[in-house]
Amino acid sequence: MPEQRLQKILARAGVASRRKAEQLIANGQVTVDGQRVTELGVKVDERKHQVRVDGKLVLPEHYYYVLFHKPRGVMCTTSDPEGRSTVVDYVRDVPARVLPVGRLDYHTSGVLLLSNDGDFVQALAHAKQRADKVYVAKVRGVVDDAQLERWREPLVIDGKKTRPAEVKRLRVEGDKTWIEVTLSEGRNRQIHRLGEATGNVVLRLARVSFAGLGHDGLRPGQWRYLTREELTQLKKTYGVPQRVRAPEPTPEAGSRARPPRRLSTKGKERWKVDPRDRERNNSRDGARKERRPRKTTTRAQAEGGQHLAGAQSASRERARGSSRRRERQR
User: Fold this and answer.
1) Which terminal residue of the chain has fewer beta carbons within 10 Å of its beta carbon, N or C?
2) What is the pLDDT of residues 76-105, one digit of tens each?
3) Number of domains comprising the chain
C-alpha cells in the first residue's frame, strides 16, 4: 500500500473524522515511530510505521468485502426516515460498518456489494468505471427486433448521454417479455427510463450480476464474503482492492438474515418490541394471573375427611338420642 496522508489513515482506522484528525495532529497528539507530528500533509505507510494517538497504537483497519442478494422492498441506504428495512439491517454480523457499492432501487432485487473499504466502494461505484451490470427485466408488451434496437439506443439523463446498452430477448409470456440488459454504467433509473422510451413499462427488475459476480447459491436476504480469487480478479480488472487478504469465514448459506421490526417515534428510529407482541404477552400474562390453581386432594386428606364426617354424624345421633330420653322421663 502506498504512503497516505496521516489524517486519512486516522479517519479510516475509525479514530476520528478527517477534520477532527487534523485537529489531533495540530494539537501534537499524534506520533509516528515515537516522533511527534504537528504538520498536516505528512504521509506514512501504516504497514511500516507505528502511528499512535495519545500514546495509543492505531492499528490498520481490517477490510470486509460482502456480496449480498438484496430482496425487493429493501432500501439501499444505511438508514431510512420512514422506518423501512435497509441493506445494513441484513449484514449486522459483519464486524464493521459497511457501505453499499452504488445502489439498487427499492423494488429492485439482486447482486449488491458492500464494504468498509472506501477506495473500493468509490472506484466500483464511479460512473467512469466500466463495471458491467447485468439485469433481467419483465416488461409489458411483446418486444420485437425493432424494439430491441430502440432499447440499445443511448438516452440523455441529467444532460448527459448514456452508453449504449446490450439487450437480448429471453422469452415471451403472453403479452409480457423477459429481456436481459447489460449496462456499463449506473445512471438513475436507466432501465426504467429505457422502458418508458420504448413503450415497454418495466414490471419487474433484478440484477443478476455485477462486475462479473453473481448471487448463485444465495437466496434473497443472504450474503457472503468475497473469496480471495474474486478479490484478485477485481484487482486485476478494476485496480481494487489495493491489498487482497484472506476473507473471513463465509456465513452459513442456509441462514437467512431477518431484520427486527423497525418503528419510528417522533422522527427518531429505534429498535424495540413491537406493540402487538407486547399486547399478546401482557394478555397471556394477565390470563395466567387470573387463573386460579386447581384444588387437589390427596388420598390421606380424603380418608381424613371421611373419618371426620363420620365422627360428626355419630355426634349428631348421640345428641338426638339424649333428647328423646329426656322427653320420655318427663
Assistant:
1) C
2) 988 899 999 999 999 999 988 888 999 999
3) 3
The continuous run of DSSP H or E covering 235 comes out as: helix 228-238
Per the CB < 8 A criterion, the answer to whether 193 and 183 are in contact is no
Locus of grid cell 387463573: 291
Say yes or no: 248 and 215 in one domain.
Answer: yes
3-state helix, strand, coil split of the chain in percent (to 5) is: 30, 25, 45
From 216, 195, 217, select the one nearest 204 (Cα to Cα).
Answer: 195
Residues 84 and 195 in one domain: no
* Environment class of 254 (CB within 10 Å of its CB; exposed 0-12, middle 13-18, buried 19+): exposed
Residue 302 in domain: no
CATH of the domain at 180: 3.30.70.1560
Name the residue range of residue 172's domain: 136-201
What is the sign of the dihedral through the CA atoms of 248, 252, 253 and 255? negative
Contact indicator for 211, 238 with CB cutoff of 8 Å: yes
Does residue 317 sit within a domain? no
CA 272 to chain centre: 17
CB 226 within 8 A of CB 247: yes
**Residue 181 in contact with residue 137, Cβ under 8 Å?**
yes
The model's confidence at residue 60, banded by pLDDT at 50, 70 and 90, is: low
Cα 139 from chain centre = 29
The reply to whether 112 and 218 lie within a common domain is: yes
Name the catalytic one among 33, 80, 105, 117. 105
CA 184 to chain centre: 26
CATH of the domain at 38: 3.10.290.10
Let me know if 93 is a catalytic residue: no
The tens digit of pLDDT for each residue in 233-263 reads 999 998 888 778 767 665 654 445 556 455 4
Q: Does residue 10 sit within a domain?
A: yes
CA distances from 54 to 57, 226, 256 (A): 9, 36, 42
68 with 127, same domain: the answer is: yes
